[in-house]
What we know:
By secondary structure, the protein is of the alpha/beta class. The chain has 2 domains: 6-197 and 366-383, Rossmann fold; 200-365, Rossmann fold. Helices cover 40% and strands 16% of the residues. It is built from 13 helices and 14 strands. The longest helix is centred in the middle third of the chain and has 17 residues, at 146-162. This is Glycosyl transferases group 1. GO terms for molecular function: glycosyltransferase activity. Residues 208-350 form the Glycosyl transferase family domain.
Amino acid sequence: MSVAPRTTTDNPLPPAATPMHVAVYMADQNPHRDRSQGITSMTRTLMDEFAVRDDLRLTQIVSSSSHRQTQPNIQTSSIPFRTDGRAGRLIADAIHPWIARPDVDLWYYPKGYAPRSVKPYHPSVGTMHDTIVQYYADHYPDSRSPRAFRYWIELTKRSLQEFSYVLTISQHAAGQLREFCDRYQITPPPIEVTYEGSSWESVRDVRYEKNECVTHLASQAPHKGTNRLLKFWETLQSRGRDLPRLELIGRLDKEGEQIATRLRNFVQHPPQPLEDLQTTIGRARALLLPSEIEGFGLPALEAYYVGTPTCYVRGTSVGEVVDERGRAGEFDLTDVDDFERSFDWALSIDEPTIRSIGDAMYDRFSNKVIAERIVAAFRRAVSV
Length: 384
């Protein structure tokens, strides 16, 4: 039977008398190799907030290839080999509790996977972002090998069984975790929704001059919906719509490349460094987000931070993240006419309203607020 999640701000605890010592496992984050680079961005931002708090002491568990923080007040325990290859990653994930033995109050796994071969120290907390591997197994079974699906599903099951506390990034993601537990008859640990922040909050005061274009973060991953968006765009183009320039950032698969040859006023950019990406999205009149499943909806938060409204799929977690005034940007996954209505709204909304929506989202999801929620959850986990 599943347990309903709660948001940590519902029941805050009084300030701790002494700092809590937390070990943070980061050897499984190799952003130059990982698909999930957003998790490393989240981890970096969160650790930056943790490092300036008086109520925490931090020890990071890293490898010679993984992400690591550079603040001098963060202690480091290093695994003496690389983890950006399969063998090193599997070994480190399995045995790091034996290699790194800091005397701490709590272990934290921001990527959301518990050690595979040994029980994690108690208490242990993981931020589990979604159950997208199960979604792919159900909807896109040819996207990975059966062996890969078994591995990641079993690791998700083990993490839910072994963590003493689970954090997640939206009520929508919490629902995914509950359904996963019900499916595999797992009794879950306590689940708390802490949400997620972004380093893009540092550019909220920048004003970008708008171009006559809209932007999409292209992906070959089928759930991201890039080809679906291109087909929508081709349909609107065939109707004689006077469309702004469509700018894609990222790579297309073969089907997407074929559709793109039929589009007018279309530009494709390679993946961009952070500052260029912020400028590109900040200058766009809308961000188009046709993803059919998201753990949180970070692209929408970041787009509003740089003053760009977002069109996104109805029924995803993005609607939970976007302020109520931005929900006119929702559209049905399979309805080009609904997409066109959402798109027209995004082109019509004025800058003061966009900025007001972004400010309201910042009030809920600033990095400081997120860090406070997570630390409150840590203290709850220790007190259980």
